[in-house]
Amino acid sequence: MEPLTEKKAIPDKLFYKIGEVSRIAGVEPYILRYWETEFPFLKPRKNSAGQRVYIKKDLELVLQIKNLLYQEKYTIAGVRRKLGKTLSGKGLYSKELIERIKKRLREVLKNLEKPI
C-alpha cells in the first residue's frame, strides 16, 4: 500500500472513511482497527451504518502514530506514552475545528433558507 508522499497534501474533507485513511496513510484497515484498541486517543466516530468516520485530526494522528512506529522505531507503549503526554489536556476535537464546522453549518442553513 503506497502512502501519500510529503509533497502530496491530505485531501481537504470533513470526513474520511477507513479505506481512504488506509490509502492516505499507507497502512491496511486492520492495522487502523488494531491501533484503535491500543491508543485510547484514536477514536474515530461511527456513522449510522456503523462505519468508522475519521476527521482530519484523526488522520493526522494516524500519520503521526505511523511515523513514530515505523520511522522512529517506537514501541506501541512508547507511542502511547509520548502521544498521551502530548494530547493530555487537549480535546480531541479542538475549539477551532468545532467553530469552523459551526460556521460552515450556519452558511449551509442560510443558503437553505433562501427563496428559490
CATH top level assignment of the domain at 16-90 = Mainly Alpha
Low-confidence stretches: none
Strand content: 5-15%
Estimate the mean pLDDT confidence: 87
Radius of gyration, whole Å: 16 Å
Approximately how much helix is present in the residues? Answer: 55-70%
CATH architecture classification name of the domain at 16-90: Orthogonal Bundle
Largest sheet: 3 strands, antiparallel
Number of helices: 5
The multimeric state of the shown protein is: single chain
Number of strands: 3
Strand order of the largest sheet: 1-3-2
Order of helices and strands: EHHEEHHH
CATH topology of the domain at 16-90: Multidrug-efflux Transporter Regulator, Chain: A, Domain 2
> How would you sum up the global shape?
elongated
The first-to-last residue Cα distance is 47 Å
Which structural category do the helix and sheet elements fall into? mainly alpha
Question: Which structural traits does this protein have?
Answer:
single chain; 116 residues; 3-stranded antiparallel β-sheet; Multidrug-efflux Transporter Regulator, Chain: A, Domain 2; 3 strands; mainly alpha; elongated; 5 helices
Describe this structure in words.
It is a single chain. With 116 residues, the chain is mostly helical. The protein has a domain of 75 residues: Multidrug-efflux Transporter Regulator, Chain: A, Domain 2, CATH 1.10.1660. A three-stranded antiparallel β-sheet has the order 1-3-2.
Q: What topology does this entry show?
A:
Elements: E1 16-17, H1 18-25, H2 29-38, E2 45-46, E3 52-54, H3 56-71, H4 76-87, H5 95-113
Antiparallel strand pairs: 1-3, 2-3
